[in-house]
Amino acid sequence: MPAPRWRLSATDETVAQHLHQVLGIAPILCRLLAQRGISTFEEARLFFRPALSDLHDPFLMQDMDRAVQRLQVAIGQGARILLYGDYDVDGATSVALLYAFLSPFYQNIDYYLPDRDKEGYGVSLAGVEYAHQTGATLVVAMDCGIKAHRAIELARSYGIDFVVCDHHLPDETLPAAVACLDPKLPDCRYPCKELSGCGITFKLAQALALRQGIPAENLHPLLDLVALSIACDIVPMIGENRVLTHFGLQQLNRNPRLGLWALIERSGRRYPLSVSDVVFGIGPLLNAAGRLGDARDAVRLLLAAERHSALEAAGMLVQRNRERRAVDQATTEEARRRVRHDPALEAQKSLVLFDPTWHKGILGITASRLVESFHKPTVVLTESEGRAVGSARSVPGFDLHEALSHCTHLFLSFGGHAHAAGVQLAPEDVPAFAEQFEAIVQKTLPAQAAVPELDIAGELRLSEITPAFWRVLKQFAPFGPGNMNPVFQIRRVTDTGQSRLLANNHLRLAISQGDSPVFTGVGFGLGEAFAAVQSGPFDLAAQLFDDDWQGERVLSLMAKDIQPGT
User: Do 181 and 163 meet the contact criterion of CB atoms below 8 Å apart?
Assistant: First the structure.
């Protein structure tokens, strides 16, 4: 992948100066606030001091009244309710959340997560048949369902109603559900349009609690699940999502549910956990359940009530994730090799790779790895049940969903959003799809999206990194899209002589800037820059983080790129 172009984030300096006057914090921190659209003392107070009272009224969401009413009817009748979720973290946490909320006062509930290989994404016909066979008369579909026209029609023929809790883009027509909860519906006036699937499920629980007279405090233990879904589904970390994640991380770090405690123990993660720990440490373990086995194992763990069995189940997911990682690495290396040995592929602006032997459960990971390596919109496909099925991933600044929508005549099914999508098509149509997708990317890929960019929040001197500065910067967390962990440019730093090259092309840094204190840091995958580090002053793009060093927390630098000194 070409070296990233450093791009300084635009800042309204007038707003930043005003915030400096009213807040009295470092000017660079005020620029960070201005970059996030914060311009007043009150907006800054809400940002730094999130409160659960900031959450929106759940009944602002279109169809919420109908969804709650249908649940109340089912509960009043003692009817069987099936909770249906997708097989990833967002789906599993959604099912676990609603099950955990309902079960203290209602027991006639069951849950179902589809088999990734046999049923694929979304509400399957097999899932509807399961609901029919087990006597369910109401299905709550979570993190899926907004495009499940055929499955919901089949359910109606059986006398089964659907309530849909989804956050994906809807079609022009909606499925025949009793209620469709999705902030992305054109007429929905809910303020937060980017909730996770589990976030929408939480709003349903919140609304039902209001109608049933259940104290709001009873919902607080569910927030660890919501935070997990928001972090792992990479939805914007702004507004309501940031509030939910803030309190969800508190719950996770202070009093996690037994299953999550067991995962943290088995994964070796240390408290306090951040969004990054959740995304890279906990999320992959839960995802491993559905990638190489039964996704319901993740829900069972999240609902675990006994310590020994929770640790045993968590250990099983850790092992399954090791197996997933081995398959993932082998597939990714094979895919990279194909691209590097095919001049025609390397010359293209997109990648479409198809191999009927690749494991369906790791295609999304492989596509993401290829985007990291080649910085091109990528689709990775395998064969399943006679179809070419796969995952697509985009580069920043390119709307993948829009591009794929021009290929729908070739698809048997298709769904997703601007950054990620899933597709199914006939194997014989893969070459035609690859050709058309490349033509669309050639025509619509913005010039700036063709080269990776590194967003620089501002310039920082090492001498400015004081304990007071770090205390305020930490309050910008939780980080995620829309509120990214800032990357600072630190000019003309020098090696103290203690920097060294590590295994696997990583760097350990020990640097100073003028008469500043010495700072240590790490640069993953930046081994090629070691000569530049040793040879003279260089410019560093880096984030700040608390590192574990010999059993202690040490403020360190996470290098993102290194360039010659300017």
Answer: yes
Q: Give residue 536's pLDDT.
A: 81
Angle among Cα 421, 427, 433 to the nearest 5 degrees reads 55
**224 within 8 A of 261, measured Cβ to Cβ:** no
Instruction: Give the pLDDT of residue 293.
Output: 79
Single out the residue of 382, 440, 383, 384 nearest to residue 407, CA to CA: 440
Assess contact for 491 and 8: CB atoms under 8 A. Answer: no
- Per the omega criterion (within 30 degrees of 0), is the bond before 170 cis? no
Give CA–CA dist 526/504, Å, rounded.
10
Global pTM value: 0.91
**Of residues 427, 326, 436, the one with CA closest to residue 377:** 436
Residues of the chain with pLDDT under 50: none
Burial call 484-505: b when 16+ CB within 10 Å, e when fewer: bbbbbbbeebbbeeebebeeee
pLDDT, residue 551, reads: 66
Using one digit for the tens of pLDDT, what is the confidence trace for 384-395? Answer: 889 999 999 999
- Tell me which residue has tokens 């910067």: 473
- DSSP string over 79-138: -EEEEEE-SSHHHHHHHHHHHHHHTTT---EEEE---TTTT-SSS-HHHHHHHHHTTEEE
In this structure, the chain runs to a length of: 566
Structural domains of the chain, ranges and CATH numbers in brackets: 5-49+454-564 (2.40.50.460), 58-255 (3.90.1640.30), 342-450 (3.10.310.30)
Residue 447 has what pLDDT?
A: 85
CB atoms within 10 A of CB 185: 19
Distance between the two ends of the chain, CA-based, in angstroms? 23
